[in-house]
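S.,

Sequence below, as promised.
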Amino acid sequence: MASSTPKTIILSVNDEFRPIYDDLKAASGTAIKPGHAIAKASATTVQSNGTASPAKPKMVAVEAPWHDTLSSMAIDEAYAVGDQVRYVLPQTGDLLYMWLADSQTAVLDSPLVLDNAGMLTVATVDASTKEGTLFGYAAEAVTTSGAVSRIKVRIA
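The prediction came back faster than expected:
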């Protein structure tokens, strides 16, 4: 029986394809794993998105195929400082396999926003929610307790 666990970050896009960029390097002092939301640290580097509610372009690190080994899959391998980071600029409707922060309970269609480490948290959307802060919606139910976990996310 085939595994139901995805082995790639990009699960589907809402048009023909989504380009993968690799023009930026991992900044020092940052941990970037495939599925993390990232942001520019400088003109030539990226870091895990450290802004809780960014109103800037969405960027998500994807797996580097050269990280695939006999003992681990590329989707599980973090980028080292100075590595070229492969990433996408997801668009509304894309389905990605990202990280849900610890101590979260996401049900189908839960609104998700960024935490301060490139992961997602379940949001309470109300009148105080700023425009552009919603990252996406849970495309599956996931509960995290004591550890982070991956989650399928439909980009907002």
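The CA atoms of residues 10 and 96 lie 5 Å apart.

Coffee later?
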